[in-house]
Design brief:
Blueprint: E1 4-7, E2 10-16, E3 22-28, E4 36-39, E5 60-64, H1 69-80, E6 84-89, H2 95-101, E7 104-107, H3 115-121, E8 127-130, H4 140-161, E9 165-169, H5 183-200, E10 204-210, E11 212-214, E12 221-225, E13 232-234, H6 235-246, E14 254-260, E15 263-264, H7 265-273
Parallel strand pairs: 5-6, 5-8, 6-7, 8-9, 9-10, 10-14, 11-13
Antiparallel strand pairs: 1-4, 2-3, 12-14, 12-15
Bound molecules: NADP nicotinamide-adenine-dinucleotide phosphate (NAP).
């Protein structure tokens, strides 16, 4: 009889987090590309499940830019639903906030670390979310070192670490950036170049391009489309979209434009992916 078992093989390690506390974490013993479905008929004999392997509930997510405004809200959502979150931050002073949101903070400056270091930091992740950014106060140079090169480093690290899923927060306008020298044009070109690398990668990628971000409370109602459109959206709603996108296999290979709208998020996502 053919039976299918979804298995997640884990090993438990002890690490020290950014606050110096000892933590036991479960890590995938090898990069499995998410959960692995094994056909008992195809494996040896009558499969009843090895007693030494433990099922890990939820997804193991690595979050680049973990103290960001979207990232912290996403962290709380993921932790609430049972995922484990490892947050890459560059400032140790932010570790406490990240821990309070439920993530394991790891100090990693994405403009200084190389691919090997980032890959080691995110080893075992099933999904990587890039939600970092140089921020509004930064100049053109950091758009290149952070928004472009930092994203490309994290993407390469995701591939090196065998994390199958990669979701990046980009921006509307990256689909057609102008060639001006002003900081905003440099920013959009940096986003476009990072996105192009993502699209050329062999990860199960999704690019999320919101319009203007606001700090208004989330409404739970958005518009999502595969064609560009302008608008504004609370960061809280972007976090909610990312939560759904992460677990949505149909979103792999899609560029999604996201703004405030009329539809509940699930419905808006289903409509965009139909
Ligand atoms: N603002 C908008 O209207 C808008 C519109 C569309 C898309 N976006 C994009 O949306 C994304 C998230 O937005 P947000 O408002 O949540 O961002 P945010 O609050 O500015 O967070 C960005 C995070 O990236 C971190 N970061 C910067 N440089 C780093 C480095 N070298 N190494 C590690 N982390 C670093 C920052 O940490 P530090 O505190 O250490 O700097 C910060 O926690 C960004 O990619 C942004 O470009 C923004």
């Amino acid at each position: 009889m053919k039976r299918e078992h979804t298995l997640r093989f884990t090993a438990t390690f002890q690490i020290r987090d950014a606050l110096g506390r000892a933590r036991r974490i479960s890590r995938y013993a090898w990069p499995v590309g998410g959960s692995r479905t094994v056909s008992a008929a195809a494996s040896a004999g009558d499969f009843s499940g090895p007693a030494s392997c433990t099922s890990l509930p939820g997804m193991h997510v690595a979050l680049a830019g973990g103290h960001g405004q979207i990232a912290l809200q996403l962290t709380r959502r993921l932790v609430d639903r049972g995922d484990t979150v490892l947050s890459l931050i560059r400032n140790p002073g932010q570790a406490e906030d990240v821990s309070a949101a439920g993530a394991n903070p790891v100090i990693c400056d994405l403009e200084r670390a190389d691919v090997r270091e980032v890959a080691a930091a995110i080893a075992g992740a099933e999904a990587v979310v890039f939600a970092a950014g140089a921020g509004p106060g930064s100049g053109a140079e950091r758009k290149l070192t952070m928004d472009r090169d930092g994203a490309i480093t994290v993407l390469a690290a995701a591939a090196s670490a065998g994390a199958p899923r990669f979701v990046i927060v980009s921006a509307v306008g990256a689909e057609n950036p102008s060639d001006g020298d002003d900081v905003f044009s440099v920013y959009l070109r940096a986003k476009a170049q990072a996105d192009a690398a993502v699209q050329a990668s062999d990860r199960d990628w999704t690019i999320v391009r919101p319009g203007r971000l606001t700090d208004e409370p989330g409404t739970g109602r958005v518009r999502i489309a595969v064609e560009p459109f302008r608008g504004a959206i609370p960061r809280a709603d972007v976090a909610a979209v990312l939560e759904l996108v992460l677990g949505e296999p149909r979103a792999a290979g899609s560029v999604l434009y996201v703004n405030g709208g009329e539809d509940p998020i699930r419905q808006a996502l289903d409509g965009a992916l139909a």
